[in-house]
Amino acid sequence: MGEESVPGSAAVLLIGGVRLLHPEDQVFAAMLEGWSLQQRSRFLAESTITARRQLIERFARWSNEYPWRWRPQDLEEWTSDAIAERQAAHSTVRGVHVTLSLFFDYICDPRYGWVDECQRRFGTFPVQICHEWNTVLHRSEFEARPGNRALTRAELQLLFDHADDRVDEVRRLGRNGWMAAFRDATLLKVCYAWGLRRREVTMLETVDFGRNPKAPEFGDAGSLLVRYGKAKAGGPPRRRTVLSVFGWAVEVVEEWMTEVRPLYELRSAVLWPTERAGRVGPEYVNKVFKRYRDELGLPGELGPHCLRHSYVTHLLEDGWDPLFVQQQVGHAWSSTTAIYTKVSTDYKNTVLRQALDDRFGIGG
Questions:
Q1: pLDDT digits (tens, 9 = 90+) for 296-355
Q2: What is the pTM assigned to this prediction?
Q3: 153-304, superfamily in CATH?
Q4: Start-end of CATH 1.10.443.10 domains in the chain
Q5: In this structure, are residues 215 and 243 in contact, taking their beta carbons and an 8 Å threshold?
Q6: Which residues contact 225 (CB under 8 A, 6 or more apart)?
Q7: How far is CA 304 from CA 150, 184, 317, in A?
């Protein structure tokens, strides 16, 4: 395949022989556009492409140089600053390293012609700056901050009570916004009660709840279709059906669906509408959780994803089958579910006591 036919190549994006008014800026912009095209051809999500492009642009501003002049020592200096001055997490640094490595794989690939283009225009050319000796290794499946854990049952109850109190307070004072407060409280409970990620919960629609013939007592909220599950690289969002297990959560959803949400007078099926009939986003979930967390004085490292951790932990503590829990949260491997598991000391002691009693014939 010739260079001219490769999506994202210099020959496609730059007209040969034409003098550029601002060659360095224009070639850099063409590189970024070409890389975007290459990633789209691999069917990567637009949000992923945009985030990667913005990261490369930030690195260029930080270095005050163009990619064909970047060297390994630039990466090492950035990493040192990120760790020492910004206390960047291990996963954050590794993510930057991976993005930079992918970008250089693209611009250094001879099929795209950027090496020759830069040599001809600037007398130098890009070289890979990311190597195994100056980048973070991915040694573990779980790289979140150590404080990212399941909430205790007491913390969870405190959070939900506080969210409910917020609704009562707004209504008592006669202020606008009680519907939004009710929405926020319900959203957090749904995150926990069905073990959802932020994007999964914000993309829900009313039609995603359905009946489960095996659990008729849950009515029209016996199951939940998650249509925007975490996708694999280059793949579409993965779907899964989560069966309802908490009766109290079903009652909360039914109250929201039948009594409060209709007050928004919507034409769409969006489950969590904004005041302007839009859709709340993942960052809004972060904002709500952080506000309630800080008002309660809970540890600052807790975030909304901890509700998903809590769901896994509490189901296992209550004796649910591990395979069932794994399928509920959409993990392909049981080892991934195990990473989420933070069973309490009381639970572990109960299991230990039962095992010892059975082994030594105590209590029966």
A1: 999 998 999 999 999 999 998 888 888 899 999 988 776 666 666 665 556 566 666 776
A2: 0.67
A3: Intergrase catalytic core (1.10.443.10)
A4: 153-304
A5: yes
A6: 208, 209, 210, 239, 240, 241
A7: 10, 12, 20
